[in-house]
Amino acid sequence: MLYLAQVHKNDFLYQYQLRLLARQESQNFWLTISEESLILSGKDNTISNKLLVLVKLSPTGEIETIEDATDWVINLVQIYLSTGITPEFLKQEAVKVENWQQSLTLQNQDLARRSLELEARREQIEALEESLKRERNGREKTEG
Question: Is 70 exceeded by the pLDDT of residue 144?
Fold first, then answer.
């Protein structure tokens, strides 16, 4: 599983540890990790303190890969923040979509009601036509 983490130097253990910040749930959906979750990364001197990294963990919680998250963060900024897509904007759009769905549902219900009314009127007209035909036939028989 892929995580966004921050590197912290643990002076007591002379090791670096990774503080997990977020977990990838699907391609474009991440969950933040609210509780502090730390993983020892060993004595690797090639990573810097406070660096943001993407870390892939095995199902058993062992580190499979670690890579600098700078390019990933820059990509997020380019895709989402440079176009004005913010969490507030997405919430507003979700509200608009919900309102449109409700409006369409109401319109659909109104159309269904009108359709039923038209069908009832058509049946009334057909019944009147049938009644007129019988009345006409009855007159023709009495006159004839």
Answer: no
pTM of the full structure: 0.56
Q: Do both 70 and 97 map to the same domain?
A: no
Long-range Cβ contacts of 99-106 (<8 Å, 24+ apart): none
pLDDT higher for 88 or 143?
A: 88
Instruction: Give the contacts of 8 (CB within 8 A, at least 6 positions apart).
Output: 16, 17, 18, 19, 38, 49, 50
Residue 49 domain boundaries = 2-81
Count of domains for the chain: 2
